[in-house]
Amino acid sequence: MILLSIFWTQLLSSCSVLMPPPPDDTKGVQDWLVVPVFFATNRSYAGKNGSVDYSEDENLSGLLFGVKNVVVPYPVRSPLDVKTEERMQWQRLKVDHDAKKLHPLAPPPDLCFIRNATFTRDEMVGAFDAYRKRSGSKETVVFVHGCCATFDTSMLRAAKLASHMQVPVLLYDWVSPKGFSRYLQNETLAEQTVDGFLSSLGSVQKILGAHNMTLVGHSMGAIILDQALLRRKPHGNAQEPQKFNELIMSNADTDGKTFLNHADEFAANAEKTRIYFSRSDDRLRASAFAHGGFKRLGSPGSLATPLAKVPGIEMIDITDAKTNHELPFWLVSNMHRFGNLGPVKDFTLQKQDTGIFDLKRTTSPLAEPSGLQ
């Protein structure tokens, strides 16, 4: 058993060498948004002098809450107007990006519409509800991040998702030690997080209503989303759990065959379920190898066809987007908002005879900087 553990660690370490993080792709970007992100995290607080920062250690006393401003590139493919910026309390920045820096610094706290803060559970409810009402949006997106992500990286993805979705995003952040060599540790921690996430999800649902919520699971976050929704129970005297607006699984790092076995039960939790997968996801290829060669949901191979036949599920092949293991922010957001690609001319989406939706490039694509490494 010890030898097996050592073998897997060496295997995954070698994978990380073969798959270095992508370089910063924001060189030359001048338009940025300051986006406040509300979060619940099971990490330990590591802030100093009032800063909002968290460690890679678990907070044994439960979830901690807060809001923090995050700077992200202005979205290219998702239409955004001044009125939306105002109602979302975002701030646009004009910054000549220095390629030596990963991101421009956030403005001083007194220039942000919403101050960085930590909250008690009750304070979090009041602050987020006030923000949601101020935004004019009934909908909230709950985002569960994936493997090997620091607090800052998870917040950055949540802010990017918000800038494209243009509704309040609530991040559920879990301890996920950085480094693909710690993959097995991340997988276990994700499974240990399921019950806490389900409890929090139930609390949020009581306030917002499931029909006003969209859930997004990226990478290993799909494990948490999948297992939690299979354990959902009806509230009160209801016969069935209330349906969410939409369930989104992108680059899902969970077993494809296991998901297919209960896909109809999973999809019954929402009005619509969209699964974004890629045939060229390096991380999921390594994950499949580490799991005995069994395909992952985010790169399902031949399993994509029977999955596309499950009522309520749309399977969308994003291989041509060339986002590898990254969340295709503009695509999941435009599909959610418009039911199509939106005002995008460099891609088309075609439904195949198999029922799978295939994303295809039509011209040289526009640059959509992620600001992520």
Topology readout:
Layout: H1 2-18, E1 31-41, E2 43-45, E3 54-58, E4 64-73, H2 82-87, E5 91-94, E6 117-119, H3 121-135, E7 140-144, H4 151-165, E8 169-173, H5 183-208, E9 213-218, H6 221-230, E10 244-250, H7 256-261, H8 263-267, E11 270-277, H9 282-290, H10 304-308, E12 313-317, H11 329-338, E13 347-351, E14 357-361
Parallel strand pairs: 1-8, 7-8, 7-9, 9-10, 10-11, 11-12, 12-14
Antiparallel strand pairs: 1-4, 1-5, 2-3, 4-6, 13-14
Helix pairs in contact: 1-9, 4-11, 5-6
Key terms for this structure?
373 residues, twelve-stranded mixed beta sheet, 14 strands, disordered N terminus, 33% helix, alpha/beta, 11 helices, Rossmann fold
Mean pLDDT, to the nearest integer, reads 88
Quaternary organisation of the protein chains: single chain
Strand content: 15-25%
Structural Rg: 20 Å
Q: Determine the CATH superfamily.
A: Alpha/Beta hydrolase fold, catalytic domain
Question: End-to-end distance, in Å?
Answer: 34 Å
User: What percent of the residues sit in helical stretches (DSSP H or I)?
Assistant: 25-40%
CATH architecture: 3-Layer(aba) Sandwich
Unreliable parts: 1-24
